[in-house]
Amino acid sequence: MKNLKFIILAISCLVFVNEASSKLFERKDILEMKGIVKQTGSSDYSSEYVLDSALVTIYNETSITTTVLFSDDKGRCNLILPFDNKYTVSVSKNGFVTKIIYIDTRVSRKTKQHFVFPFDIDLFQKIEDVDISNLLKEPIAFVNFNIIKKDFAYNYNYTDRINAQIRKLYTEYYLSYSPINYLKSDSTTAITDQIPPEIISDQTVIGTIDANVIYKIQVIAVMSGPLPENHPVFSKCGVVEVYYNDGFFKYTTGEFGDFATAEKRLMELREIGFYDAFIVISKNEIQVPYEEINLSPAQ
């Protein structure tokens, strides 16, 4: 009988929590932050991967923890922040560098609205030889209510600048790392003699040009878009195309008929700060992976 009473009590509590959660989302005085936590790559042709089980901790202005949650299997996390408060949000995961977001939900007393603010946060892997602690002493982003836009916004120039500086340090680290550094400096043996024949035979060789294949360079992808007209991507990259796919606004530049020309342009873009740019390939106007393109030697 006691067990039955406990089950009934547990069910009642569950119903109460669900009703409370539903009412919270119906409120008109909250900011709902819809985020995606991702891993940022910094090596050649890097790609971004969502991170599940990332720890998201929300602190109020007195540094007291108000909410603790984890990103789901698609990297998503929802933050419900009532108005007229200041919050610090910490996003962390083992093996990655923690990032902090500062959020100010103070608005006009007359404002009664349920605001939804999509965002994504990229976590860099911890590498002992890459020290970015000085760059992350302050929050990576400051979110507050913009009176002119009558919506919540953040200083993307500030965030982009800090992220670019971090990516530069990672890029320099990867470029300084040599996969054949086991060779002695005084070695007279050819490098190819140190590599097993089966690996040499599998190396990609750039060959003939296929008129149906187009190479472009993706310079940036953002969830909260489209980008404003004064964003550096437009002034630095020349002609830029944008398309929406998988929940992101993706910006590409260039249209090249061969891989070598696209790769040369890619290196130029990385030199001016677009460290995560990479080549995308389309065949007959359909995007395809590298493996599906015939890169065999010319006959």
What would you say this structure looks like, in words?
The chain is α+β, with helices and mostly antiparallel strands. It folds into two domains: 28-170, Sandwich (Immunoglobulin-like), CATH 2.60.40; 205-292, Sporulation related repeat (Alpha-Beta Plaits, 2-Layer Sandwich), CATH 3.30.70.1070. The protein has five helices and 15 strands. Strands 4-3-6-7-9-10 form a six-stranded mixed β-sheet. A hairpin with a 2-residue loop joins strand 14 and strand 15 (286-288). The longest helix has 25 residues, at 2-26. The model is unreliable at 4-22, 42-47, 178-208 and 295-299 (pLDDT under 50).
Helix- and strand-based class?
A: alpha+beta
Compute the separation of the termini in Å: 83 Å
Point out poorly predicted stretches. Answer: 4-22, 42-47, 178-208, 295-299
Helix content: 10-25%
CATH class of the largest domain: Mainly Beta
The CATH superfamily of the largest domain is: Immunoglobulins
User: Mind telling me which CATH architecture of the largest domain this is?
Assistant: Sandwich
Inertia-based shape: globular
Please sum up the structure shown.
The protein is an alpha+beta fold. It has 2 domains: 28-170, Immunoglobulin-like, CATH 2.60.40; 205-292, Sporulation related repeat (Alpha-Beta Plaits). 23% of the residues lie in helices and 33% in strands.
